[in-house]
Protein backbone atom coordinates (compact mmCIF):
# COMPACT_ATOMS: atom_id res chain seq x y z
CA UNK A 1 0.00 0.00 0.00
CA UNK A 2 1.37 3.38 -1.01
CA UNK A 3 1.48 5.84 1.90
CA UNK A 4 0.32 9.34 0.88
CA UNK A 5 3.11 11.87 0.69
CA UNK A 6 1.08 14.36 2.72
CA UNK A 7 1.08 11.96 5.69
CA UNK A 8 4.85 11.63 5.49
CA UNK A 9 5.15 15.40 5.06
CA UNK A 10 3.10 16.01 8.19
CA UNK A 11 5.22 13.58 10.20
CA UNK A 12 8.52 15.10 9.08
CA UNK A 13 7.22 18.65 9.60
CA UNK A 14 6.01 17.79 13.10
CA UNK A 15 9.44 16.42 13.98
CA UNK A 16 11.17 19.49 12.56
CA UNK A 17 8.88 21.77 14.57
CA UNK A 18 9.47 19.65 17.71
CA UNK A 19 13.23 20.02 17.25
CA UNK A 20 13.89 16.34 16.59
CA UNK A 21 15.98 17.36 13.58
CA UNK A 22 18.49 20.07 14.39
CA UNK A 23 18.62 23.08 12.12
CA UNK A 24 21.13 22.55 9.36
CA UNK A 25 21.12 18.76 9.77
CA UNK A 26 20.89 16.50 6.72
CA UNK A 27 17.64 14.73 5.87
CA UNK A 28 18.51 11.64 3.85
CA UNK A 29 15.74 9.80 2.05
CA UNK A 30 16.99 6.41 3.21
CA UNK A 31 17.00 7.27 6.92
CA UNK A 32 13.66 9.07 6.75
CA UNK A 33 12.06 6.17 4.89
CA UNK A 34 13.32 3.78 7.57
CA UNK A 35 12.18 6.02 10.43
CA UNK A 36 8.63 6.44 9.17
CA UNK A 37 8.24 2.96 7.69
CA UNK A 38 7.63 4.07 4.12
CA UNK A 39 9.34 3.93 0.74
CA UNK A 40 11.57 6.69 -0.56
CA UNK A 41 8.96 7.94 -3.03
CA UNK A 42 6.64 9.69 -0.52
CA UNK A 43 9.70 10.91 1.39
CA UNK A 44 11.05 12.55 -1.77
CA UNK A 45 7.69 14.21 -2.44
CA UNK A 46 7.40 15.33 1.17
CA UNK A 47 10.85 16.94 1.10
CA UNK A 48 9.89 18.91 -2.01
CA UNK A 49 6.79 20.20 -0.24
CA UNK A 50 8.72 21.09 2.91
CA UNK A 51 11.29 22.93 0.81
CA UNK A 52 8.51 24.99 -0.76
CA UNK A 53 7.22 25.76 2.74
CA UNK A 54 10.64 26.88 3.94
CA UNK A 55 11.38 24.09 6.41
CA UNK A 56 13.95 22.37 4.17
CA UNK A 57 16.69 23.62 1.86
CA UNK A 58 18.71 21.72 -0.75
CA UNK A 59 22.45 22.27 -0.52
CA UNK A 60 25.14 21.38 -2.99
CA UNK A 61 27.02 18.22 -2.00
CA UNK A 62 24.71 17.76 1.02
CA UNK A 63 21.22 17.36 -0.39
CA UNK A 64 18.14 18.10 1.71
CA UNK A 65 18.83 19.81 5.05
CA UNK A 66 16.72 21.44 7.74
CA UNK A 67 16.58 25.17 7.07
CA UNK A 68 18.39 27.63 9.34
CA UNK A 69 16.21 30.75 9.55
CA UNK A 70 17.76 33.99 10.76
CA UNK A 71 16.40 36.06 13.63
CA UNK A 72 15.13 38.60 11.10
CA UNK A 73 13.23 35.90 9.21
CA UNK A 74 11.71 34.74 12.49
CA UNK A 75 10.70 38.30 13.39
CA UNK A 76 9.14 38.74 9.95
CA UNK A 77 6.86 35.76 10.61
CA UNK A 78 5.44 37.34 13.75
CA UNK A 79 4.88 40.60 11.88
CA UNK A 80 3.11 38.77 9.08
CA UNK A 81 0.83 37.08 11.58
CA UNK A 82 -0.09 40.41 13.20
CA UNK A 83 -1.20 41.61 9.76
CA UNK A 84 -2.95 38.49 8.48
CA UNK A 85 -4.85 37.23 11.54
CA UNK A 86 -6.89 40.47 11.84
CA UNK A 87 -7.62 40.24 8.10
CA UNK A 88 -8.82 36.66 8.59
CA UNK A 89 -11.10 37.71 11.44
CA UNK A 90 -12.57 40.54 9.36
CA UNK A 91 -13.27 38.11 6.51
CA UNK A 92 -14.76 35.62 8.97
CA UNK A 93 -17.24 38.27 10.12
CA UNK A 94 -18.47 38.44 6.53
CA UNK A 95 -18.29 34.78 5.53
CA UNK A 96 -18.58 32.57 8.63
CA UNK A 97 -21.20 29.83 8.79
CA UNK A 98 -23.29 28.76 11.75
CA UNK A 99 -21.10 25.66 11.98
CA UNK A 100 -18.02 27.85 12.39
CA UNK A 101 -19.72 29.88 15.10
CA UNK A 102 -20.77 26.76 16.96
CA UNK A 103 -17.21 25.45 17.05
CA UNK A 104 -15.73 28.84 17.99
CA UNK A 105 -18.20 29.35 20.83
CA UNK A 106 -17.56 25.83 22.10
CA UNK A 107 -13.81 26.43 22.14
CA UNK A 108 -14.27 29.74 23.97
CA UNK A 109 -16.42 28.04 26.64
CA UNK A 110 -13.81 25.33 27.13
CA UNK A 111 -10.94 27.80 27.16
CA UNK A 112 -12.61 30.10 29.68
CA UNK A 113 -13.47 27.15 31.92
CA UNK A 114 -9.90 25.79 31.84
CA UNK A 115 -8.48 29.28 32.43
CA UNK A 116 -10.71 29.91 35.47
CA UNK A 117 -9.73 26.57 36.99
CA UNK A 118 -6.06 27.28 36.40
CA UNK A 119 -5.76 24.21 34.19
CA UNK A 120 -3.31 25.42 31.58
CA UNK A 121 -2.41 22.04 30.11
CA UNK A 122 -5.04 22.24 27.36
CA UNK A 123 -5.04 26.00 26.77
CA UNK A 124 -2.34 26.02 24.11
CA UNK A 125 -4.00 23.35 21.98
CA UNK A 126 -7.41 24.97 22.46
CA UNK A 127 -5.94 28.28 21.35
CA UNK A 128 -4.48 26.64 18.27
CA UNK A 129 -7.82 25.08 17.36
CA UNK A 130 -9.54 28.43 17.91
CA UNK A 131 -7.28 30.31 15.52
CA UNK A 132 -7.36 27.48 12.98
CA UNK A 133 -11.17 27.55 12.98
CA UNK A 134 -11.22 31.35 12.78
CA UNK A 135 -8.96 31.17 9.73
CA UNK A 136 -11.20 28.57 8.10
CA UNK A 137 -14.21 30.80 8.76
CA UNK A 138 -12.58 33.47 6.56
CA UNK A 139 -13.72 31.49 3.53
CA UNK A 140 -10.32 32.00 1.91
CA UNK A 141 -8.34 28.77 1.35
CA UNK A 142 -5.22 30.76 0.43
CA UNK A 143 -5.37 32.82 3.62
CA UNK A 144 -6.13 29.76 5.73
CA UNK A 145 -3.17 27.88 4.24
CA UNK A 146 -0.83 30.83 4.79
CA UNK A 147 -1.88 31.24 8.42
CA UNK A 148 -1.47 27.52 9.03
CA UNK A 149 2.08 27.61 7.66
CA UNK A 150 2.83 30.68 9.76
CA UNK A 151 1.67 28.90 12.92
CA UNK A 152 3.85 25.87 12.12
CA UNK A 153 6.92 28.02 11.50
CA UNK A 154 6.35 30.21 14.56
CA UNK A 155 5.97 27.09 16.74
CA UNK A 156 9.28 25.86 15.27
CA UNK A 157 11.20 29.07 15.87
CA UNK A 158 9.68 30.29 19.12
CA UNK A 159 8.86 29.07 22.58
CA UNK A 160 5.68 30.63 23.94
CA UNK A 161 5.43 31.57 27.60
CA UNK A 162 2.18 30.81 29.36
CA UNK A 163 0.03 33.97 29.38
CA UNK A 164 0.12 35.89 32.65
CA UNK A 165 -3.64 36.37 32.40
CA UNK A 166 -5.21 33.35 30.68
CA UNK A 167 -8.70 34.45 31.70
CA UNK A 168 -8.18 37.81 29.99
CA UNK A 169 -6.77 36.07 26.92
CA UNK A 170 -9.88 33.91 26.57
CA UNK A 171 -12.08 36.93 27.20
CA UNK A 172 -10.43 38.41 24.11
CA UNK A 173 -11.21 35.22 22.20
CA UNK A 174 -14.83 35.63 23.24
CA UNK A 175 -14.87 39.25 22.06
CA UNK A 176 -13.54 38.14 18.66
CA UNK A 177 -16.32 35.58 18.31
CA UNK A 178 -18.96 38.14 19.36
CA UNK A 179 -17.78 40.52 16.63
CA UNK A 180 -17.67 37.73 14.05
CA UNK A 181 -21.18 36.59 15.02
CA UNK A 182 -22.52 40.15 14.60
CA UNK A 183 -20.89 40.49 11.21
CA UNK A 184 -18.87 43.46 12.49
CA UNK A 185 -15.71 43.09 10.41
CA UNK A 186 -14.01 46.25 11.70
CA UNK A 187 -14.56 45.26 15.33
CA UNK A 188 -13.34 41.72 14.61
CA UNK A 189 -10.23 43.14 12.95
CA UNK A 190 -9.46 45.54 15.82
CA UNK A 191 -9.96 43.03 18.64
CA UNK A 192 -7.91 40.39 16.85
CA UNK A 193 -5.10 42.87 16.18
CA UNK A 194 -4.91 43.74 19.88
CA UNK A 195 -5.03 40.07 20.87
CA UNK A 196 -2.29 39.13 18.40
CA UNK A 197 -0.01 41.96 19.52
CA UNK A 198 -0.34 40.90 23.15
CA UNK A 199 0.32 37.27 22.28
CA UNK A 200 3.44 38.22 20.31
CA UNK A 201 5.06 39.57 23.48
CA UNK A 202 5.09 36.06 24.95
CA UNK A 203 7.22 34.60 22.13
CA UNK A 204 10.90 33.86 22.76
CA UNK A 205 13.34 32.53 20.15
CA UNK A 206 14.33 28.94 20.82
CA UNK A 207 17.91 28.19 21.85
CA UNK A 208 17.60 24.60 23.07
CA UNK A 209 20.54 22.69 24.50
CA UNK A 210 21.85 19.43 23.07
CA UNK A 211 20.32 17.60 26.04
CA UNK A 212 16.90 19.09 25.34
CA UNK A 213 17.16 18.07 21.69
CA UNK A 214 18.06 14.51 22.68
CA UNK A 215 15.04 14.37 24.97
CA UNK A 216 12.77 15.51 22.12
CA UNK A 217 14.19 12.76 19.92
CA UNK A 218 13.49 10.13 22.58
CA UNK A 219 9.95 11.38 23.08
CA UNK A 220 9.11 11.70 19.39
CA UNK A 221 6.65 9.11 18.09
CA UNK A 222 5.60 9.68 14.50
CA UNK A 223 5.18 6.30 12.80
CA UNK A 224 3.43 6.62 9.46
CA UNK A 225 3.34 2.99 8.47
CA UNK A 226 4.05 -0.22 10.35
CA UNK A 227 4.61 -2.28 7.22
CA UNK A 228 8.07 -2.95 5.86
CA UNK A 229 9.19 -0.18 3.51
CA UNK A 230 9.50 -0.87 -0.19
CA UNK A 231 12.27 0.63 -2.26
TrEMBL record:
Record region (Disordered): 207-231
Highest rank taxon of the organism: Bacteria
SMART domains: FCD, HTH_GNTR
Domain HTH gntR-type: 2-69
CDD domains reported in the protein's UniProt record: WHTH_GntR
Family matches, as PROSITE patterns: HTH_GNTR
Keyword annotations of the record: DNA-binding, Transcription, Transcription regulation
Biased composition annotated in UniProt, kind: Polar residues: 220-231
SUPFAM superfamilies in alphabetical order: GntR ligand-binding domain-like (SSF48008), Winged helix' DNA-binding domain (SSF46785)
UniProt protein name: GntR family transcriptional regulator
Source organism (scientific name): Streptomyces venetus
Lineage: Bacteria, Bacillati, Actinomycetota, Actinomycetes, Kitasatosporales
Amino acid sequence: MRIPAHSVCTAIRDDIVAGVYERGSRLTEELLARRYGVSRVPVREALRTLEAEGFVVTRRHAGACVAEPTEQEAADLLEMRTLLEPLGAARAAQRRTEAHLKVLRGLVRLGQERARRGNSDDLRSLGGWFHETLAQASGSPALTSTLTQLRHKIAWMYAVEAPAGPVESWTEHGAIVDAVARGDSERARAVTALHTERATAAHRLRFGSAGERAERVRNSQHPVNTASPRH
